[in-house]
Amino acid sequence: MRDQQMSQAATRRLSKVLAGGIGSGGRIDHRGLFLTEGTGARVTDADGHGYIDYMMGFGALILGHRSAPVVDAVQAALGQGTMFGAACPAELELAERVVACWPCADMCRFTSSGTEAVQAALRLARAATGRDKVLKFEGHFHGWGDNIYVSVKASVHSGLNARPHALRMTPGQPETVLSDVVVAPWNDLPALEAILSDHGRDIAALILEPYPTNNGCMDSGAAYLQALRSLCDRNGIVLIFDEVVSGFRLGLSGAQGHYGVTPDLCTFGKAMAGGMPIAGFAGKRDLMALLEGNQVSHLGTYNSNAISAVAALATIDTLAKDDGAAFARITKYGRSLTDGFNEIFRRHNLPLCADGLGPVLSIFAAATPPERYRDTLTHDAALLARLHQALLAEGIWIFGRGNLMIGTAHGPAEMDETLEKMDRVASTLTNGKS
Ligand code: PMP
Question: Which atom of ligand 1 approaches the CA of 269 most closely?
């Protein structure tokens, strides 16, 4: 067992002053980890232990920790000012660059977080349609806003798979929000068609993760997304791809480029800015023009702040180099890791499997990958938790829910070390020692 004295002392101090001892609910699975430094694909904790980082800032650090283009751009921009609260060159350049990336985009706006971007996109859809209801999929996550933090997880109160009930995810969320959210099962077109035949004309927006990752990576293919596009067209519904994870990760044009299906609006964030806080939304002119003259409101003190904007420019420029070679590289790496994990799980006869498109992948505690969110409810969550903890003790840091984010800083040395340690951990799991 690694000595964790310094980390434990810091965690105790934190727990007295930082509510719950964590800065975000999403960090609960690695509470106790106290990190002091990050370089490339690796981080170091307060006790000097190293970890290969597959959290990568929840996907934000696609170029790794302290990547030179981002650090240089930020340092240079600091000399000119951190924020202006008015238009500046970085905002102009970034808007032009982002609009060129997204197939759905004629125009964009920036926010400080994905949660805010989703709120703005939903508001635009409501304003454009004059309808109030939003349709979302069970198991998909779109930030923590009261009105959409709904049915991210199922419970005994979730009802039938074909007609999930809308469920609040936290005490403190008003029950009234549920009257405007309709929930559908992912990857089940007949169920969705039935829901739309009841509610279709009341629904402003269908929002989804086109490549869902928040309950494990699920690639449902282009034909399914195309069917969603057609259903939205038929019912006058604004189609919103929430690309906060898939954007600037599956490619410069995100999931819409990967699958060749174009939504009306998209949201993006995370991987676009090498770890600096910036996100945004983009879409067709008729929708985005509603922001003209503040007909529809979207605000934010830190929107397009100069430091985040230059970090985003540096990240996008780096990702765009050599015809997107970075994406080919992280896809290849992620696929090799997926194959390597599956070989290890098979050899140790463990009910685990890995799956995903490559740039973000998931380990599932089941013999085969899920096709629908509710498939994951029968997975062995305790086994996944043991795997996560055992890997952490070996210096491999993955998401508690089994995801791994691949960045351009991961290379052959990380791959070999990860597979070697996974093999060791798998043998302890088989023996029930972990
Ligand atoms: N949408 C998706 C698909 C996400 O995964 C997340 C964050 N994990 C968000 C929205 C919210 O983004 P943020 O944490 O930047 O508010």
Answer: 15
Measured from the CA of 24, which atom of ligand 1 is nearest? 14
Q: Indicate the top mutation candidate among 115, 134, 149, 250 to test ligand 1's pocket, ranked by most ligand atoms within 8 A of CB.
A: 115
What CATH architecture applies to the domain 68-318?
3-Layer(aba) Sandwich (3.40)
Does any ligand 1 atom lie closer than 6 A to the CB of residue 242? yes
What is the tens place of the pLDDT at every residue in 380-408? 999 999 999 999 999 999 999 999 999 99
pLDDT at 65 > cutoff 60: yes
pLDDT at 419 over 70: yes
* 356-379 per-position pLDDT tens digit: 999 999 999 999 999 999 999 999
Residue type, 32: G
Name which residue sits closest to atom 12 of ligand 1, judged by CA.
114
d(CA 393, CA 272): 31
b vs e for 337-349, b when ≥16 Cβ sit within 10 Å of the residue's Cβ? Answer: bbebbbebbeebe
CA distance linking residue 20 with residue 199, whole number of Å: 40
Select from 142, 147, 373 the residue to mutate for testing ligand 1; criterion: most ligand atoms less than 8 Å from CB: 142
- CA atoms of 321 and 240, how far apart (whole Å): 28
Edge to edge, what strands does the sheet with 403-405 contain?
353-356, 360-364, 403-405
Closest atom, ligand 1, to C-alpha of 116: 16
**Class of the domain covering 5-66+324-430:** alpha beta
CA–centroid distance, 122 to ligand 1, in Å, is 14
Q: Domain map of the chain by residue range?
A: 5-66+324-430, 68-318
Tell how far CA 329 is from the center of its chain.
20
Ligand 1 binding pocket includes 241 (Cβ within 6 Å): no
For ligand 1, say whether the CB of 53 is within 6 Å of any of its atoms: no
What pTM, to 2 d.p., does this model score? Answer: 0.98
In this prediction, residues 268-284 reach a mean pLDDT of 97
Whole-number Å distance between alpha carbons of 335 and 297: 42
